[in-house]
């Protein structure tokens, strides 16, 4: 990942045309179009919103790295993978209870604290109390079927 981060830093600097330390949705769309990646501006804005921790509507370097992590490991047309990866702050392919609850709210499958606790007791990895993407997907698919 360290080597990737250096590559990402170089990419970030190339995209950040005005060198303000931030990438706007339009700068990002222009860069993606140069790479012949066709993503609509509203999709880009939505993905930025998921990783924009300081809520300024732009990507700083750390947020950009997270954005690229999502792009490399998820599918743009699969909201479940996008939300999971956006919640995976340490790039481990695992999420904790709080991030799980956040995703559930985003996809209108709201769970209270007790339901989250029970779900984690039943499904999460007992050693570190985290949930993998496969387990997450199984739970969400089941909940959507039972909706």
UniProtKB/TrEMBL annotation:
Keywords: Calcium
InterPro entries to which the protein is assigned, alphabetical: EF-hand-dom_pair (IPR011992), EF_Hand_1_Ca_BS (IPR018247), EF_hand_dom (IPR002048)
Taxonomy, superkingdom: Eukaryota
Gene3D superfamilies found in the cross-reference section: EF-hand
GO MF term set: calcium ion binding
EF-hand domain location: 3-38, 39-74
PROSITE patterns, per the entry: EF_HAND_1 (PS00018), EF_HAND_2 (PS50222)
Protein name: EF hand domain-containing protein
Biological source species: Hexamita inflata
Lineage, highest ranks first: Eukaryota, Metamonada, Diplomonadida, Hexamitidae, Hexamitinae
């Amino acid at each position: 990942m360290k080597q990737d981060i250096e590559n990402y830093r170089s990419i970030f600097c190339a995209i950040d045309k005005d060198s303000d330390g931030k990438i706007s949705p339009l700068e990002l769309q222009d860069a993606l179009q140069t790479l012949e990646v066709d993503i609509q501006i509203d999709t880009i804005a939505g993905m930025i919103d998921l990783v924009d921790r300081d809520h300024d509507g732009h990507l700083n370097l750390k947020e950009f790295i997270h954005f690229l992590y999502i792009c490399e490991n998820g599918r743009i047309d699969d909201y479940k993978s996008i939300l999971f990866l956006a919640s995976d702050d340490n790039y481990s392919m695992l999420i904790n209870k709080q991030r799980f609850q956040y995703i559930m709210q985003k996809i209108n499958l709201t769970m209270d604290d007790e339901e989250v606790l029970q779900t984690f007791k039943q499904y999460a990895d007992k050693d570190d109390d985290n949930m993998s993407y496969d387990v997450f997907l199984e739970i969400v698919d089941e909940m959507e079927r039972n909706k």
